[in-house]
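Morning!

This is the sequence you dropped in the shared folder:
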Amino acid sequence: MASGEGRRAAFRSILFGPSADAGGPLESDQPPFFLDLNLDQVVAEITSGYEEYDLEPFFFTALTSVAPVRYRHDVFRDLDGTRLFECITAFAERMHVMREGLAQAQKLRHPYQRKRWFLDAAATYRDAVMALQRDVSKTDAGSAGFQALGRYLADYVQSDRFRSLVADEAEVRRALDSVVYINGGHVQVSRYDGQADYSVDVERTFAKFQQGAVKDYRGKFQDWPDVNHVEGQILDLVAQLFPEVFSKLDAFCARHADFVDGLIASFDREVHFYVSYLRFVARFRNAGLHFCCKTTLARTFGQLHHLGCLGCPCPARHPRGGDAPQRGDPQRDLHLDDPRGRTGPRTQDPRPDRRPRCSVRVRDVRRRAGVPRPDGGQHGRHRRPP
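The structure's back. Tokens below.
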């Protein structure tokens, strides 16, 4: 195996990395405890507007080891409030436009119009990949995920497959530079032979009659995606007049029918796990909060546990008993191997008959959150008799 191929194989997923969780089955249905913890509402809000990426299975499937959790934490740090986040969203927008173009091409009736839309979609994909490779290479990403992605993209843009896509697209686009010449009451299709641009002469002639801003009486053309029957017949004549040009278009569509790279398409989907969650969290940060969980304490514990098992940042300023977490510090990371979430041995209470003390009572939390008592009153207040 060549060294470049080895580096490409190193990147498998921006969500799972090289862990055992990568490639495993995803949960298609939400876990039964989602309803009790209101996580169904949380996930629905996070994924709202991202339906094309089918993100719910990523939020349904908890990780089974520590390594992928740390892997996701590092990716979150690379994206959280950085220039890289803006680059990723720009890449995602181009990929969205590409998919819309391919979908629209399938709806068109004329075969050459479909192929022209296919050509434009390939150009959009080219721009998206080249911009992503350039942006990732310029960022100081510290996560293993984006470092592996950067190596993969560097090799991919130099691969024969991508370079032939770029070269063929440019050649076909240059060849399609043909002109429709209309004369009198009929349509004449011919090659461009240096004819004058009469629109310039017309504008120059009538410029002397212009007196300030006037009402525009020109008719508006409807820019429908599909061609009408007249435009279709003209396109057929153009294809007959330039058979060598349109044969290049035919060959391009056949040769690059599956021009989208599988790993890049997977990355485009998976990275929205991070994008959707960070945009959801931004709502609370913009309100001056360090996340907000207005619910019962037991439900909060369940929510935090599942979010932690997804590798997502949890509502907290920093770990208890220390400063803000540092990248790669094992004492600051979540340890799923220990069901108690601790890194060291558990200290036994010398008074086993005493109940564990809590700094905040549950009823105090419920009172501050405005949760009513079962009798209709507020916690911490006595209800007056009727």
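Headline: Residues 1-9, 321-325, 327-372, 378-386 have pLDDT under 50 and may be disordered.

More detail when I'm at my desk.
O.
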